[in-house]
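It is worth pausing here to work through a concrete case rather than discussing structure prediction in the abstract. The textbook approach is simple: state the sequence, then state the predicted structure, then interpret. We follow exactly that order.
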Amino acid sequence: MEKIDKAKQFFSEARAELKKVTWPTREQTMNATWVVIVMVIVVSLFLGLVDFLLSTLVRYILS
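Step two, the predicted structure:
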């Protein structure tokens, strides 16, 4: 019975803490999402370019 009481207390306290959270607005969430998408594209292009250059260099050295 003690474990059930502890679980109830835990979830009660967790719920109380979640009520204190300041959640981001829809606009803030959308802006952050766009920042992540743009950064993923930029980093992907950079890594693709580095990969292309290094593979070209290795092919040149080995030929």
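Step three, interpretation. Residues 24-63 form one domain. The radius of gyration is 25 Å.
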